[in-house]
Amino acid sequence: MARHKMKTPQEIAASQKFVRRKKLAETLASIGMILIAMTMLVTLVNLDNRAIIDICKYVFAVGALVFTGARSINVSPEGESIKLRRIRRMEFWSGVCFLVAAFFWFYNETKSVSADNLAVTVSLLRDTIVFTIAGAVIQVIASWFIYYREKKELAENIQNKICFANAIKSVTYFDKVGFY
Asked: Which of 72, 91, 158, 170 is the one with CA 20 to 30 A from 180?
């Protein structure tokens, strides 16, 4: 029977702290993404209502800040591979795309003379929509990559443990038989 190493109280506390940090980061990212998605939906449905667009602009910026802040939190465990850490960094860059989209929403609005016309409103939001879609695509791709990379690394770890267990079995067999 293999003996498992008992975890010290410090290791248990560190593990719990990591789980809480990861849960907080994912919750904040979800809240930010919901704010971003809802404001874009409300804005695109109410293109003719200037007051709603003005409110949505600020809610979008808050959602982008919350999402980017959540993706700035390090959620990589201590022994995680460098490939997986790089993929996790992609999620941060999707947040940067959302921040750039919020910037263009404010910037293009200050640049315009009159936004009473529907065509002018759509042209004001063009850059915002483009960067929001870019951020969403990066987020989706990063999520897929993280899922498949974690799945692959788990399979490799299981395979390595099986190979190690078989090596131990063969060593104990040779010890019994007396080949050494």
From this structure: 158
CB 38 within 8 A of CB 64: no
Secondary structure, 3-state, the chain: CCCCCCCCHHHHHHHHHHHHHHHHHHHHHHHHHHHHHHHHHHHHHCCCCHHHHHHHHHHHHHHHHHHHHHHHCCCCCCCCCHHHHHHHHHHHHHHHHHHHHHHHHHHHHHHCCCCCCHHHHHHHHHHHHHHHHHHHHHHHHHHHHHHHHHHHHHHHHHHHHHHHHHHHHHHHHHHHHCCC
Angle between the 118-177 and 82-111 helix axes, to the nearest 10 degrees? 170
Residue 12 carries which side chain, given as an amino acid letter? I
- Whether residue 5 has pLDDT greater than 60: yes
